Amino acid sequence: MTTVKQCIDQKNNTIISVSSNDSTETALKLMRDNRVRAILVIDDKKLTGIVSQGDCAIKVLLPHKDPKVTPISEIMTANPLTVGFQNTLEECMAIMVHKHIRHLPVIDSNQVIGVVSIGDIVKNVIELQGSQIKFLETYIKGHGA
Fold first, then answer.
1. What is the CA angle 8-10-12, rounded to 5?
2. Rg of the chain, C-alpha, whole Å
3. pLDDT tens for residues 76-99?
4. Which pTM was predicted?
């Protein structure tokens, strides 16, 4: 079973975040520029929320609010669910499916370390399946004979 630590160690550990006072426009630009669909909300080095492109679209753009002046605090998910290094990606997937979310912040020693996304989990599953297929092919062919 792959752990969150193993997943995070394979990723770029850049934490993309905004403060709760930043505008929705600022958050959207960061998401665009970094090619991510959600970013963390960090105030005074503490995780206070998470905001996704969906939050911005549904809570700001559809009701015709101005993204230049709408603060993240109005649209973020406060106190998001988090995982730690010891969690497995299977546990993360179960949380995401049960809670209908696509991103889980990773916390270690009260510090934000990164984010595990549904994309990370899918990538891991595909890699594991590839390894299993290679093993089975070798077995069927007579252990490389």
1. 75
2. 18
3. 999 999 999 999 999 999 999 999
4. 0.85
